[in-house]
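TASK: fixed-backbone design
INPUT:
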């Protein structure tokens, strides 16, 4: 079973939602905290969108490298490697942004939370709407179709 339709749909939904959160969080952040709030909202939405995209993208790449077999170590190595990279980048970004006067950390936090919760909902919606067959069978009348091994 391939997860490509689900992941590509989740990427599409996530990108659209992240842009919407960037607009809303940036606007609310600007109204609440001025330019630092705007920057916090935009950075929170952008960082979350990049990280969520990296997650789905790493699964797509890992699936291709592993030739669809998600049980082999290279699949998990790629996915966990990207996860560790995201963790390191997040810590570095947090350290660099700490105490900056042009940045509102509270708006940043709420933008990240909004994107993460929204993406979980949208991932579930993508899983529900994606057309992924439960089984791979040859139907009567189908010719020339090869079954994956």
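OUTPUT:
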């Amino acid at each position: 079973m391939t997860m490509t339709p689900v992941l590509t749909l989740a990427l599409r939904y996530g990108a659209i939602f992240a842009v919407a959160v960037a607009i809303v969080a940036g606007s609310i952040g600007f109204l609440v905290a001025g330019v630092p709030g705007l920057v916090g909202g935009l950075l929170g939405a952008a960082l979350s969108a990049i990280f969520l995209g990296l997650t789905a993208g790493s699964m797509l790449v890992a699936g291709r490298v592993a030739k669809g077999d998600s049980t082999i170590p290279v699949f998990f190595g790629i996915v966990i490697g990207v996860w560790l990279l995201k963790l390191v980048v997040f810590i570095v970004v947090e350290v660099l942004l700490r105490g900056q006067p042009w940045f509102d950390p509270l708006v940043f936090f709420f933008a990240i939370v909004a994107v993460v919760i929204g993406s979980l909902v949208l991932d579930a919606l993508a899983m529900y709407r994606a057309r992924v067959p439960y089984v791979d069978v040859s139907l009567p009348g189908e010719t020339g179709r090869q079954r994956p091994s």
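COMMENT: The helical segments are 4-33, 35-65, 73-97, 105-129.
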